[in-house]
């Protein structure tokens, strides 16, 4: 059976290898990895692969994704702080959720009571990145209210770094998280078994064996699928960075000028484009567009291919300098960054092909 393009070629053996390496590195540092599944939309085939390698908890930002994993035997963590309106679904489909708003936690308590369930939460602390989290000076007052709530169990503290403000996880900010955890345990005579020290941007500290003692969980997505840490955007030794490749088919290949002819207005996205005169070029069109990808995150495997741009459904390439002679119907392959992979996985028009 022929492949349908565009498609994502997903190498399950490489993903399994990356999972084993991440578990090994984390365990050497006393850290339990949670694999975040959002970049591949909690695809069941991929999730089964990583769970079979020994992952005990998976996380996702969308409750709809966690619903798909109901039958998979692992803990489920909601990694985006919940909407109050989805509290009932959170209690039903997530074992644990990250939280920062007392009002939402109260609603989770109410729903957990209705379902006769115990819902575990990790309280998020804002250590300077200015996304979600309680400010450190408000933590004790917040915890005082949380521990009064029925059917809610506070199991730890967490933080998120680099995703919004670009703040790098380091010894000083992660140690602050550990110190807050110790302070809460002493103040309220409770145990908080989890200190969740961030995402793939904290993974470089695992690799370097510099992660502060007491940080015992990381939420990892990009390191798994792209084999890189995100603090300094470096590829990681012994991890594959090509476990998922995007493939698209050439639907037109013609020699055309490099400059449009006529008065230039705005393109389909409201931007006014500019062009450089490079003379005639071999221009290819791939059946793939901005509805499916993040254009800036796309890199052809053939380094002599230049990306010219894209509209909603067409990706334009310059093949002039290519040594290989392409023809209509040929397949062009691309590496993706995290944002581009996220878009491609989310698109209904990009097919998934699994290599077992």
Automatic annotation (TrEMBL):
Q: Which GO terms describe its molecular function?
A: alanine racemase activity; lyase activity; ornithine racemase activity; pyridoxal phosphate binding
Q: Which residues form the Alanine racemase N-terminal domain?
A: 10-226
List the InterPro entries hit by this protein, alphabetically: Ala_racemase, Ala_racemase_N, D-ser_dehydrat-like_dom, PLP-binding_barrel
Cofactor(s) required for function per UniProt:
pyridoxal 5'-phosphate
Q: Start and end of every D-serine dehydratase-like domain?
A: 283-350
| Catalytic activity annotation | L-ornithine = D-ornithine
Which UniProt keywords are present, listed alphabetically? Isomerase, Pyridoxal phosphate
UniProt KW Ubl conjugation keyword: no
Q: Which family does it belong to?
A: Belongs to the alanine racemase family.
Q: What is this protein called?
A: ornithine racemase
**Lineage, opening ranks:** Bacteria, Bacillati, Bacillota, Clostridia, Eubacteriales
């Amino acid at each position: 059976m022929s492949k349908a393009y565009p498609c994502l070629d997903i190498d399950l053996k490489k993903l399994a290898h990356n999972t084993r390496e991440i578990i090994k590195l984390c365990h050497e540092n006393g850290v339990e990895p949670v694999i975040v599944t959002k970049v591949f939309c909690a695809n069941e085939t991929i999730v089964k692969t990583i769970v079979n390698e020994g992952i005990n908890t998976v996380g996702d930002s969308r409750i709809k994704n966690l619903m798909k994993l109901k039958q998979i035997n692992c803990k489920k963590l909601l990694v985006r702080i919940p909407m109050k309106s989805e509290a009932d679904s959170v209690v039903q489909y997530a074992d644990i959720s990250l939280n920062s708003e007392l009002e939402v936690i109260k609603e989770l308590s109410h729903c957990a009571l209705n379902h006769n369930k115990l819902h575990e939460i990790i309280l998020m602390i804002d250590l300077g990145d200015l996304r979600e989290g309680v400010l450190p000076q408000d933590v004790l007052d917040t915890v005082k209210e949380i521990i009064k709530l029925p059917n809610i169990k506070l199991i730890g503290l967490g933080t998120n770094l680099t995703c919004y403000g670009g703040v790098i996880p380091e010894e000083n900010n992660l140690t602050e998280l550990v110190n807050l955890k110790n302070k809460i345990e002493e103040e309220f005579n409770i145990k908080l078994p989890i200190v969740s020290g961030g995402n793939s941007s904290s993974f470089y500290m695992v690799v370097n064996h510099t992660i502060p003692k007491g940080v015992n969980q990381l939420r990892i997505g990009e390191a798994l699928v792209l084999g890189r840490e995100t603090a300094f955007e470096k590829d990681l030794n012994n991890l594959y960075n090509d476990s998922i490749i995007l493939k698209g088919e050439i639907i037109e290949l013609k020699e055309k000028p490099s400059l449009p002819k006529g008065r230039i207005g705005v393109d389909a996205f409201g931007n006014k484009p500019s062009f450089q005169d490079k003379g005639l070029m071999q221009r290819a069109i791939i059946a793939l567009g901005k509805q499916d990808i993040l254009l800036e995150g796309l890199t052809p495997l053939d380094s002599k291919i230049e990306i010219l741009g894209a509209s909603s459904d067409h990706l334009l390439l310059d093949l002039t300098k290519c040594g290989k002679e392409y023809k209509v119907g040929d397949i062009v392959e691309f590496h993706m960054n995290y944002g581009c992979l996220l878009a491609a996985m989310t698109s209904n028009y990009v097919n998934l092909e699994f290599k077992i």
